[in-house]
Amino acid sequence: MNITNTTKEGRLEFFSALYESARMSSAEIREALDRRMNQYKGSTEIDGSDEAAATVRNITYELIESQISSDIPMPKTDASSYSETRSRNAENVERLLRSLRDKLPFEQMNDIDERYTYIYGGSIWYAEWDNSEEHLGEVGTVRVHCISPRDFIPQPGIYNITDMEYCFLRFTTTRGEVMRKYGVKDEDIDKLDCEYEYRTGSEEGDTVAVIICFYRDPDGEVGRFIYSGEVTLSDLPRYYMRKGEICPICGSDSGCACGAKRRIGEITRERIMRDIILPSGDTIPAFAFAEGADGAVIPKRTTIPYYTPKRFPIVIRKNTSGENTLFGQSDCDYIRPEQQAINKVESRILKKLLRAAVTPIVPEDATVTTNNSVFGQVIKLKPGESVAQYGKVDTTPDISQDIAEAERLYDHAKRVIGISDAYQGIDQAAHESGVARQLRISQASGRLESKRKMKHTAYAELDRIIFTLYLAFADEPRRLSYKDAYGRVHSQEFNRYDFLEYDPKLNEYFYDDDYLFSVDLNGGSEYQREALWQRNLENLKAGTLGNPENPITLLRYWQSQERAHYPHARENVEYFLAEVEQAKRGGVAYGEDGYELQRLR
């Protein structure tokens, strides 16, 4: 994307106009998103009618909530081509991503992501590198945000994020946060795009709309421009490039003899301060020695290129794919006819019941009192009157057909999405065995497999972006820990230098980022945990883990149950660990299959 005006004011005007143009082009999409959210919240609107529904049976909310999954896909990383070094690096990347699953609030983000996806047809994930955080000598970390599609403004006419030349994100934050994060001056406060103002006592506050634009320059490098109202908050034309003071003459970022005043510029190469030992055993020396014109050996500091990501740090999770659409297909759209029809039927039922009554028929001279607080009124018979003189008119309507129609529409909506009673947990087929019922639930959930695959795809793309951010900006090794198959905790490091490889043709080092990202289907609750627990128990009884009577076999069993999140499995693991250690102290040695090898005493 070419930006002809390079002045600060000109760039702000350019991006403001680009944002407004893109926003106007997506007005129809935003109207559809608003309509879907209103339907989810139980809107009384009837399409094609000015009269609102008298009541709402919110089947949209019920069916969407029935699909909400707390499963957070666990990362899985593989090398695209095998080597011992690349396989070890893939394991470290996977451990890094798993540690971030625990560190970041993925449970909270997943909860809102699930609803965004089914309501709107998709959700937006945004990852950024935050260099302000420092912990135990490790500077910087990744921040992940789940954003509503209403706050994402795409390039018009483009339906894939990787094909876009630019896109916008819209955030709402406080004025104080904007001042702290971007260093806004007091005289520019009134120029911010303030949305809501409030006053508490003697203090004033407001919320500010912040617009972030990611774009590609003519070289394909990613740029980022942030503004609010009439104030430019951040302008990084080559966002992923390192910035620092450089010499305008020789381009050096270290001491030089040019004598020119240094300026802020891009630093594309890193000077090696110490020897780097690669996982393969090779060493990148801090100095390379070259022969000068007079034959003297001259030491020269070794430099390597910095890694530069090439993608927008944005991932779109789709519900189910559709033709020529940025987001997926919304469940709200497909069950809207049934929701509208049910609202009409339920409104009809309510009106019938409100008009229903039992009207008494009494003689003209009957005496009626209204002092009975229980029955409301009392009819007193005169002497000589008979009860037969009194009667009633029952106008209670028959709503059985209306109820049957409402249930028929509800079943129709469930079939459209692929949800059965068994999937919702309200199946009444008590005569079925547990195995048969579980099979029917699995078959019903099979129709929702496409949605799960799209979720896995989005998480895999998000993991790839996180990996590239660490490869680009994590200067210090990241300490990691993991458990092996025996439950023992080990320490490990993620070091970006481990991904350096040498190209002999170019006589240059480069970062190897060619790794395959997916999700570990056994890492979360993707399958029914009860089935995993039962399978582990069957393996124990069958002897596939070893002798079921020996502590080491029981230890393996409970470690498997712990990985399957069996309740209180950790306590049993610790117990049998102690049993195995006590057996060793007692002179009993076990083989890897759990059978006793020998007694040492």
Task: Give an account of the 3D structure.
With 601 residues, the protein is an alpha+beta fold. Among the domains are: 244-305, no CATH class; 334-443, no CATH class; 529-599, no CATH class. The chain is built from 14 helices and 29 strands. Helix 2 packs across helix 7. The longest helix is centred in the middle third of the chain and has 25 residues, at 331-355. It is flat, with a radius of gyration of 34 Å.
- Please count the beta strands (DSSP E, at least 2 residues each): 29
Strand content: 25-35%
Helix fraction, binned, reads 25-40%
Overall mean pLDDT score?
A: 84
What's the gyration radius in Å? 34 Å
Shape: flat
Oligomer: single chain
The span between the termini is: 79 Å
Low-pLDDT segments, ≥5 res: 197-204, 597-601
Q: What's the helix count?
A: 14
Brief description of this entry?
The chain is 35% helix and 26% strand.
Secondary-structure blueprint of this entry?
Elements: H1 8-25, H2 27-40, H3 59-67, E1 74-79, H4 84-103, H5 106-120, E2 122-135, E3 138-147, E4 152-154, E5 166-174, H6 175-182, E6 194-200, E7 203-216, E8 222-228, E9 231-236, E10 242-246, E11 263-267, E12 269-271, E13 276-277, E14 283-284, E15 287-291, E16 297-301, E17 303-305, E18 314-318, H7 331-355, E19 358-361, E20 367-369, E21 378-380, E22 391-394, H8 400-417, H9 421-424, H10 434-446, H11 449-473, E23 478-483, E24 489-494, E25 500-503, E26 508-511, E27 515-520, H12 529-542, H13 551-563, H14 569-585, E28 588-590, E29 596-599
Antiparallel strand pairs: 1-27, 2-3, 2-18, 4-5, 5-7, 6-7, 7-8, 8-9, 10-11, 12-17, 13-14, 15-16, 19-22, 20-21, 23-24, 25-26, 28-29
Helix pairs in contact: 2-7, 7-8, 12-13, 13-14
